[in-house]
Input
Amino acid sequence: MTKNIEAQVLIVGGGPVGLTLATDLAQRGISVIVAETRRRGEPPSVKCNHVSSRTMEIFRRLGVSKAMRESGLPADHANDVSYRTTFTGEELSRIHIPSRASRYTDKSGPDGWWPTAEPPHRINQIYLEPVLFAHAEATQGVTILSRTRIDEFTQDEHGVNAKGVDLESGQEVRVFSQYMIGCDGGRSAVRKAIGAKLSGTDVVGRVQSTYFRAPDLLSRTGNTPAWATFSLNPRRSGNVYAIDGRETFLLHNYLRSDEVEFDSVDRDWAIRTILGVGDDFNYEILSKEDWIGRRLVADKFRDRRVFICGDASHLWVPMAGYGMNAGIADAMNLSWQLAARLNGWAAEGVLAAYEAERQPITEQVSRFAMNHAIALQKEREGVPAGIEAPGPAGEEARRVAGQALYDLNVKQYCCAGLNFGYYYDASPLIAYDGEAAPSYAMDRFTPSTAPGCRTPHFWLADGRSLYDAMGPEYTLLRFDPTADAGPLREAAARRGLPLTVLDAQSDEVPDAYRHALVLSRPDQHVAWRGDRSPDDALALVDRVRGCFTDPNHHE
Ligand SMILES: Cc1cc2nc3c(=O)[nH]c(=O)nc-3n(C[C@H](O)[C@H](O)[C@H](O)COP(=O)(O)OP(=O)(O)OC[C@H]3O[C@@H](n4cnc5c(N)ncnc54)[C@H](O)[C@@H]3O)c2cc1C
Output
């Protein structure tokens, strides 16, 4: 017997990207099926350790940021990044990132100034995914088919017919949907099926990763623990992430560029050298993985009714914690556009925006990550021989190395630009006005309302976050109460486009807001700005809902 089911959207893969996409779509009123080969709530392997501020902003909108922040490391565990000669050796420098207990009060670190209601959060993916899974599963409109693998699909003008199997019972499963999204990870079968090709750099670096339990490790340091501890010495450099904050750790041993075979490096020797411990030290391997860091981006993100999202569409070295976080940004972008189309207020053209907007950003982030990985490789391979020497010469070598490591890495661990600086500069949905968005770097950005930029965040006079006060879809921010929002409101009503008008009262309005009216999209990017409603408000509304191909034809 075949099991036949139907939903507006089928998501293949219930990793962090698929689950975020499913929850957001469902909250916008769309029925979603998620097919996932893993068992219900089964955690993934130990991978991502950093949830970016931008992702936390998305989680806040979905209603899961509080639960997420309450999970992971113990509340008072340092979130710092420490650079040392070995894990148990001398500290060279430390990037201060507040623990989650003091995340909202301690502004002293390099990311303390960030203009957001949701600072970043350090948590491993093994804790993150069950929280996200529980939230998605409890969201009305989401059906998760655990232990279900999608094997093939066809599409036509009516929808997508996907076929798979229930891995427990062996029963055939058929799903009919309007759209299908491949969130099926780096080996994505959906990507291959739509004919998308990955291109870029095949090998940026090789890494031996080991997840281990060592109850005695922390007592050997005598120092304040850190979230990430990098070891730099001439024998073997690597880094260690605190996973439970007590006895479990994830260690990455970055192979040198001349070490092209994983087996050429003794794993146990490398672990002991990075930790700075002898043969008397006991640890238990929980899992291990050898992986190649790449920089690959798909040449297309869509074939008609089928899209790819997250690792399915891009893969790179997870520098700056921007593997999962970039995928969640993809999901946020695709979600509102797809929901708008399915809910009937956007035209078919809205679906062209996802690839036009996300592919250039993905390309950019992949290069930031690769360049950073290469710079770090140079640091590891150029460690001064005397870095562990006693006396003034050793101290000077440690001081110089510590400063260089701080300066290089504060950019990736406090990457304001990657969080808030990216903008969409070639989108069919955005009404550009001639002012270019400010350029940004991994660690720097300038808040701006140039169309395409992230809507700058501030706190409203009544204490609410701007983002909490904005509507679920488009929001017209009004900074001058006399500015006439009427024509835009009427045009939106004529086309059925959901528009909230918000009088943005605050003493803290950032200088970036220079116009009386700013139209913010459902994903908190600026679509248009002006001092009064445009002369042809209907044309603007049509543009932002994807009806731009034929001005005389309104879908
Ligand atoms: C060692 C390491 C460290 C990392 N550190 C970071 C970090 O610090 N920060 C960061 O942002 N990222 C990091 N990443 C990257 C991050 O883990 C990935 O980017 C993230 O998991 C991608 O999420 P995803 O949902 O796109 O894909 P995945 O997490 O791969 O999820 C895909 C899901 O699809 C399911 N699936 C596949 N095929 C099918 C099918 N046919 N039918 C049904 N289900 C299917 C799989 O079971 C899987 O659950 C790291 C990665 C590695 C390897």
In short: The two ends are 41 Å apart (CA to CA). The chain has a mean pLDDT of 95. The chain has 13 helices and 24 strands.
